[in-house]
Protein: Hydroxyacyl-coenzyme A dehydrogenase, mitochondrial
Organism: Oncorhynchus tshawytscha
Amino acid sequence: MVSECQSACTFSHSQLLHSGAVLSALQTMAFFTHQVIRGLSSSAVRNAAIKHVTIIGGGQMGAGIAQVAATTGHSVVLVDTNEEILKKSAKGIEGSLKRVVKKKFADKPDVGAEFIAKVMANVSISTDAASVVGSTDLVLEAIVENLKIKQGLFGALDKVAPAHTIFASNTSSLPITDIASSTSRLDRFGGLHFFNPVPMMKLVEVIGTSATSQDTFDSLLAFSKALGKTPVSCKDTPGFIVNRLLVPYMMEAIRLHERGHGSKEDIDIAMKLGAGYPMGPFELLDYVGLDTAKFIMDGWVEKDPGNPLMQPSEMLNKLVAEGKFGKKTGEGFYKYK
């Protein structure tokens, strides 16, 4: 009886397979199953966690981002055109880690030394960006705020980086859309705006353009969280969120002083004690860099010349023309020598 049933079942199955309509249906089903599996595999690749990071720019911001990424277990390549800058960056990262260890592992020097060694093992340096992006998940740029230079960098790397690699800029003022226009991966391009000093500041502005895919944006959000940061979602508008509010505030403080309505010392004290800010606007301008503030304002004025919040300041322009950029030059609104 069993053998009869098996024979009947085999016969019926054979008949079905030789039925043209059913065979066509099975082939169609197999095709769509293959497409679904392929789609899921592609999605898995796109949504894979960012593990390997290439950071272009060995300055304060680039080194800070490298430190945080390496500390959270990411493999980091820090790139700059100058070997000496890179050595200085690596030394700076190690020095910063030693300060962390002094607080975190004060009574456990061996554990502290192991921590530093582990983090530094995650960091390598290179002067050749094109040669190191072949296996990277993310290329993050933190170089000079110059649109043409950024476009040139990303345009060149776009030709050699893998298709899955996400590109991001740490720009604080330039449109991400304009930077991305030099590449063919508009859907895999976004902004990651960190704040200085990176190891201390918790915020990251994650910027998406109209062409940034949801997969890319989600990956950038997830990466920010993996660094222990708090990300906020931003549109690609001038200044994003923080600088769009902060820079006009600092500029109005200068105008207030220019009009003779308050000394810089009194304005700083008023905002610290009255608003609870850790720094007054003039102290903050000197810390950020007067040249940086002027650069941002010049770009905004060019794009929106009629906006009263974005008008230039004669006092700021004069200080920058004299090379008085703030703390980094020893003098800005205040003297630091």
Observations:
- The CA atoms of residues 133 and 292 lie 29 Å apart.
- The longest helix spans residues 20-46.
- The first strand starts at residue 52 and ends at 56.
